[in-house]
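User: I've been trying to design a sequence by hand for this structure and keep getting stuck. Would you show me what you'd pick, starting by listing the structure so we're on the same page?

Assistant: Good idea, let's start from the same input. This is the structure you sent:
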């Protein structure tokens, strides 16, 4: 960046990183804005303590705003969504050559954690399509990092759920467990037919937004972030959920604690949504295009940048002495 590390005499500083490390970025005499996203019903304590030291907070949706307030943060909160390069189109990316090209291709992108709820996704997919042909699910995923041991851990997770379900037949599931750059991620979206996620809560939902931008229909838990902006059954299939206490969680236990709640989707609803897309492919394509229109009209750099600029001007005019 042309201005990176240059002394430009700025008065306003936006902290867009995890709040546990805010302390190393605070500067005396600056007006600090915390760009905060979180996935459960309440920020963890160390996040909240640093967020409270900011002058104001920007977050993406009402669910995320409430999670900040539930942690005791009293600073002003403004809702400013995430942005994406809306000049990107599906035609810009060559689909990957894949073995399941003749299938109807569900797919997902996530880190393999309890919050992303991969077991519910696999269970719903395998139960619903036990006796179907030409349908598959491809998952771009990882655990912690991309080492051989962690890749094998994914294999063991899948073997355990297969053993528990004990079905006569399993529709094919493919895993991609290597690192991808942004161009490769978009190629991944351009290769498949329907994005599906049974997550337990999203700070925003970047893969969902990318899938919509590619014109793909999405099935996703209706909790947090971008989901608040989408019209159910028109721009996406949004899964209902029940808020439950966090009990089992092996990742980031210091932040996902038992005094928090997150969402729990029901397997029948997830199955029903995937079946509808499978049986109504033309309508699903129309839904994907409607979702793309929503993203283009609401989350472009120009639109979101304009919202940020307007708020920064208000801060400058009302609170900052530039003399």
């Amino acid at each position: 960046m042309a201005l990176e590390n240059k002394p430009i005499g700025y008065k306003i500083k936006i902290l867009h990183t995890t709040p546990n490390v805010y302390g190393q970025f605070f500067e005396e005499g600056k007006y600090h804005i915390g760009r905060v996203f979180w996935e459960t019903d309440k920020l963890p304590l160390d996040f909240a303590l640093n967020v409270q030291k900011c002058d104001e907070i920007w977050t993406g949706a009402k669910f995320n705003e409430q999670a900040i307030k539930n942690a005791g943060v009293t600073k002003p909160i403004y809702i400013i969504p995430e942005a994406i390069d809306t000049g990107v189109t599906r035609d810009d990316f060559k689909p990957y050559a894949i073995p399941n090209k003749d299938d109807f291709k569900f797919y997902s992108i996530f880190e393999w954690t309890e919050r992303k709820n991969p077991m519910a996704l696999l269970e719903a997919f395998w139960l619903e399509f036990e006796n179907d042909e030409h349908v598959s699910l491809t998952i771009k995923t990882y655990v912690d990092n991309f080492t051989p041991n962690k890749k094998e851990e994914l294999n063991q997770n899948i073997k355990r759920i297969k053993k528990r379900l004990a079905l006569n037949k399993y529709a094919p599931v493919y895993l991609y467990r290597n690192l991808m750059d942004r161009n490769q991620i978009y190629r991944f979206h351009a290769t498949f037919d329907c994005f599906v996620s049974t997550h337990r809560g999203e700070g925003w939902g970047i893969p969902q937004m990318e899938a919509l931008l590619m014109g793909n229909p999405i099935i996703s838990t209706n909790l947090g972030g971008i989901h608040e902006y989408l019209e159910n059954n028109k721009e996406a299939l949004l899964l209902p959920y029940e808020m439950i206490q966090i009990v089992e969680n092996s990742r980031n236990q210091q932040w996902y604690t038992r005094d928090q709640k997150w969402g729990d989707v029901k397997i029948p609803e997830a199955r029903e949504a995937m079946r509808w897309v499978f049986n109504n492919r033309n309508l699903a394509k129309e839904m994907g295009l409607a979702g793309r229109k929503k993203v283009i009209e609401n989350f472009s750099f120009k639109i979101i940048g304009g919202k940020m600029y307007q708020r920064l001007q208000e801060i400058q005019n009302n609170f900052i002495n530039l003399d």
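That's my pick for every position. To get oriented when you compare it with your attempt: The chain has a mean pLDDT of 93. Residues 50 and 160 are 40 Å apart (CA to CA).
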